[in-house]
Amino acid sequence: MKFLLSYTFRRRAGKTSNSIGASKYLVSIRLACPVESAGKPLRRAGISTAFPCISPHFPMSGWMLIVLMAYLSACTGPSLEESPARPNILFISIDDLRPELGCYGDAHIHSPNMDRLAKQSLVFHRVYAQEPTCGPSRASILTGLRPDSSRVFDIFTPIRSARPDVLTLPQHFRQNGYTTISLGKIYHHKTEDDSLGWSRPAWKAPLANLRGYLREENIARINPVGNSSFYERMEAPDTAYEDGMTAQKAIETLRELDSEGNPFFLAVGFFKPHLPFIAPEKYWRLYDPDSIKIPEPYALPADRFRANYNYGGEVSSYLDWSRAPRPWGYEDQFGREDSIALFDELTARKLIHGYYASLSYADAQLGKVLDELDRLGLRESTIIILWSDHGWMLGELGEWCKHGLFDLQARATLMLSPPGYQGAHTEAITELLDIYPTLSELAGLPIPEHVQGKSFAHLLGAPQSAHKEAAYIQYPRDFYNNGKLVGEKYFQGYSVRTDHFRYNEWRLASNIDSVMGRELYDYRRAPLEYENVAELPEYSETLEKHKKLLYDQFIKDAPRNKYE
To answer: Which of 425-435 are b and which e, b meaning 16 or more Cβ less than 10 Å from the residue's Cβ?
Structure first.
């Protein structure tokens, strides 16, 4: 018989015990074994007890193990008591949030609520998206599958059209007795969501137009894809815009869930700081535009493979794109000078200002939800996880947005906060793919066999320990000129991130064995990818190691032609 040993922490109520010094916490230890019932989901049963301790960061000591061994004879299966109530999950997504916050050491950012949560969380400094764009990244997080397995590579493919039978994360919790609810942006798609995963239909804020513009001149200029200006700032209440509506709905939903008394998995997705940069005026006033710094050097590196440039990316779908002055003179490898996103400094500073204002707006909405969780007394029984779907670039390397294989595009924000946890930070290399197995483990649920991530729950007690040797990222890149694919150059970009290096390969999708470009970056030489060292002789051994890591992960078993 297999046993599950787990332990969680909670802050002691009332006076501290004198039996173990000034102990502030109780460690609840659970010894359980699986009990299966025909036609019903796997559940856990067993015995539990609690011991006082000083800190939630401690190794499992010998005396605890002795006590547990004394209980082993009780774990005989059918006669076991039912497991205690499982923890609630508050699953918070913040779109396009790069790890630039007060709690990450960036004092110029006004993020008091995320910083408050960080003090009760394990904060991850090196967690990476599996593909730096909304749809594929969210599909990966919510299925536990890499894009090659989820078959979601773009923003146009709902997960259920690609993998109709996959057991998603919310579906897994729903099958194990949780009330599962989706508010705001969780999956990428507003019209086709994961109906199998939610106890009720997914809720989206009622907007008058796709992006929620309120200013009349912006509404009048909305283009065929639903975008208008990069920005909107006006005197308006928080609830006039999408994330304010989402926060209010989350507060109402928490009250309902509290009254029902069932364990819940509540997913709350905030849309900002995603483009367009829309926020009430008061959040813009938090920042002095003259003090905003432009990244240096604000230029395109000459020696990177040009497929790893997003050619404007998302900003090019907004009407302000064509009106913004740019320092001409750059030309991409297909002769398209007009696609370069090196805005003038005034536009660049305004874009950064808009990102910061939108971030602070989302932070304020998060604070309202956290306040209500505390007010209802639910914090002591709720695991909070806050994540972003990828990173974002604010002019570094001449880049904006995501959509590529640079570190700032792939590196996400992640905080994990069990009840009673004292804040810690970790530099362990982690993937967003790992969220699914981690939440399953912490809730005492089995980890489904299809899940490709690895639980990082062990880092809660040992934040300085290692987790993974590498994180793997991919991104497809196609080149068009006047609507036609240029030279059939549809690239599959593959990347591996280790402690000090990032290695990228760009292969032809029509011939996966054809490597068109390589990049190797040493972050000890420069914090960003300014110098491609792939061809330097002193890096030959490092290059070969990373080529093998990438080949074993992506290439070895891949179809040789994407179109077949």
So the answer is: bbebbbbbbbb
Residues involved in catalysis: 134, 188
Q: Answer for the pair 24, 11: CB distance below 8 angstroms, yes or no.
A: yes
Residue 120 phi/psi, 5° resolution? -115, 20
Closest residue by Cα to residue 451 from 57, 12, 142, 35: 142
Beta bridge partner(s), residue 191:
none
- Identity at 78, one-letter amino acid code: P
Alpha-carbon distance 427 to 462, whole Å?
11
Whole-number Å distance between alpha carbons of 416 and 142: 16
- pTM for the structure as a whole: 0.84
- State pLDDT tens for residues 68-95: 433 333 343 333 344 457 999 999 999 9
Say if CB 504 and CB 306 are below 8 A apart: no
List the structure tokens of 158.
């709902």
Q: What is the pLDDT of residues 221-233, one digit of tens each?
A: 999 999 999 999 9
Residues 66, 71, 72, 73, CA torsion sign: positive
Other CB atoms within 10 A of residue 232 CB:
25
Q: What whole-number distance in Å separates Cα of residue 523 and Cα of residue 526?
A: 5
**How far apart are alpha carbons 375 and 358 in whole angstroms?**
26
Q: Which of the four pLDDT bands, split at 50, 70 and 90, describes residue 156?
A: confident
